Each structure stands twice: as structure tokens, then as C-alpha cells.
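Take a minute with the sequence and C-alpha cells given here and flag any C-alpha cell that looks odd. Thanks in advance.
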Amino acid sequence: QVQLQVSGPGLVRTSQTLSLTCTVSGTPITANYHYWSWIRQSPGKGLEWIGYMAYSGDTDYSPSLKNRTSISRDTSKNQITLQLNFVLPEDTAVYYCAGSYAYWGQGTQVTVSS
């Protein structure tokens, strides 16, 4: 059974860096053809794709967030990490990690405030 657990701070100050970790259990993050995505949902809006880390180590990012986003992995810990730099209040959202969109973490609320 694949499970994803998101962890990180619930409150981040404006212009600082948001860092969230997705810990995966039940399958290696390097298992073939899995794509580990970060997705968020801001209040009153739909789901927004942030980017992904592929099983191969390749990454891709939303064009609108690309300049501020980095996704990395620690294969020894089976973790995927999201870093979003220079956060703004509009980055306030529930952040999810998902595995090939078949497996979802529980989501974590992140509030950006000055």
C-alpha cells in the first residue's frame, strides 16, 4: 500500500522560503514510471500543478512558478522535497504531494503572512 505523508511548517513569512517534504512508503520513489507531483489549492480556486520529480530524477515545473520552485529527492529516505522561494500571500494554499495522481498525501495548509 502506497502512502504519502506531507510535512512542513504551517506558517511562512512573506519573502521567505517554503519547504515541504513528502515521505513515501510502500514503493521506492525510483520505481519505474512513477511521477511525484506537488499540487496546491488556494482558497476559492481549483487545483494548481506546481511540478514533479520523475522516477528517473528528471523534474518539470509550472511555467508560472518555475523561477521560484525547486523539487529534489532523497532516495535514502524515500522523500521528495518542494522548495518555493520568495513566497507571497497568494502562495497561501493547501499543498499536496501525489504519486502518478493515483496516490495522494493528506495535504497540508500553508499560510503566508507578513
Observations:
- The mean pLDDT is 96.
- Residues 34 and 80 are 12 Å apart (CA to CA).
- The two ends are 40 Å apart (CA to CA).
